[in-house]
Amino acid sequence: MVEIFTNIWKFIGENASEVIAFSALGLAVWQGYIARRHNKLSVRPYLAFSSTFLDEEPHFTVDIKNNGLGTAIITDYKVILDGVTQEDTGKSYVIEACRKLQIPDRFSSAGRYFKLGGSISAGESQNVIKIVLNEGSFLDREIAYKELERIQFKIKYKCLYGVAYESVFHST
To answer: Taking the model in full, what pTM does it have?
Structure first.
């Protein structure tokens, strides 16, 4: 047993520069791995939906905000109404899905169409839908939220490293 330790020390002594070089190489590889893992976290996007109802000017909105540190690259976007995925017919299909909601009285709406490959920067907030009632109209908050329960938005996105994520809006 003592002879084994003696041989190991002898080998290390005779090859000290090689042992130091391989140790430095191992540490450099480990540091690179740790740095890459940190960098992935530092560019991770996090898309969050929120809905707002304003009584003063009767309207409600659904917004999406990137609360993460990196840019979100859109890979898929779906609007689902009453459990049925709406056909993507271009920019107007989000508005058409909103018009199918049972909102009393007349209203105007605006919808956001997310292009595949488009992006949402860190800290950026975008309006997904905005339904504004005409002047003098009244919309009960409970009715608005009940109608919002019928619609769902799903957005798939990835970070700059290609890691995929998904965010879903469903008012419940």
So the answer is: 0.72
Same domain, residue pair 25 and 110: no
**What is the tens place of the pLDDT at every residue in 107-129?**
556 666 778 888 999 999 988 88
> Are 59 and 132 within 8 A, CB to CB?
yes
Q: What's the structural domain count of the chain?
A: 2
Same domain, 61 and 126: yes
End-to-end CA distance of the chain: 70
Which ranges of 15-99 would DSSP assign to H, the alpha helix?
A: 16-42, 93-99
* CA–CA distance, 121 with 152 (Å, rounded to integer): 23
CATH code at 118? 2.60.40
Could you tell me the residue range of the domain that residue 94 belongs to?
47-170
Helix (H/G/I), strand (E/B), else coil: 75: strand
Higher pLDDT, 153 or 132: 153
